[in-house]
Amino acid sequence: MLRSLSSSISGLQNHQTRMDIIGNNIANVNTTGFKSGRITFEESFSQLLQGASRPPGNGGGTNPLQVGLGMSIGSIDTMHTQGNLDATGRMLDLAIEGDAFFGVSDGEGTYFTRNGAFQLDYQGHLILPTNGMILQGKMADSYGNFPAGTVVGDIRVPFNEQSPASVTETVNFSRNLDSDSDAKGTVTYTQSFLHHTETGDDIRSLYNGKGGDLGIKDGDVITISAYDALGNNIGPSSYTIGVHINTIDDLAGYVAALVGGANVGSNAADPNA
Length: 273
What we know:
The chain has helices spanning 2-27, 248-259; strands at 37-43, 46-50, 65-68, 71-78, 102-105, 110-113, 119-120, 126-127, 134-137, 153-154, 221-227, 233-240. It has two helices and twelve strands, in the order H-E-E-E-E-E-E-E-E-E-E-E-E-H. It has three domains: 2-44 and 66-78, no CATH class; 90-159, no CATH class; 192-273, no CATH class. The chain is elongated. It is α+β, with helices and mostly antiparallel strands. A four-stranded antiparallel sheet has the order 6-5-9-10, with no helix packed on it. Residues 262-273 have low confidence and may be disordered.
């Protein structure tokens, strides 16, 4: 009787532990970086009432007589499975996808966590607000590179600091093609539709780079003005199409005279090409 009660009590106690773990998992459903727990059970040692016997000459052996003494906890495991990544709209909320941890330091030792809800302190360090530990990692330079010999240290965001301006060297541009647009076929050969104007071309026959008429006609007035190196205004001078200006060369001559003989070119297009 006592043995049966003891076995039953072991089951009640250990399943109560299982309920505690389940309750803890539910309580931490919204805890950042939390990993759920799992309990496993194992059978306790059995009491041997009669041992096993080997087979006699032509007969069979006998199995032992054993009475189980209940059960016990085999292990309580932390389930390091990948959770869902949720967008919070906050730039300092970080997450790791895969088997890794954030390294944080209190100045004396390094600890590991999956909690990526960081904040900035007054010095710009990324810290855990619950204990003030600083996120560890390698700091890149102003170009996003890691110089040789860079060691792991405190991550610091240099806010309110300015970097010297530099010339843009590379620009990447990409876009998607409209999948609903009609196919245009394959162009195997074509000639230029437009070409640069010559100085003797009629100014009234000019087109823009897309083939559109510039709309220049007799009676239109072109006003030219400029500034010299000292900021003094030169001009303005006005010229009438059909009276003073008929060709590109005429316009270039007036511009050159106004700015002191500079060479003047044109990028207008001739529709008769």
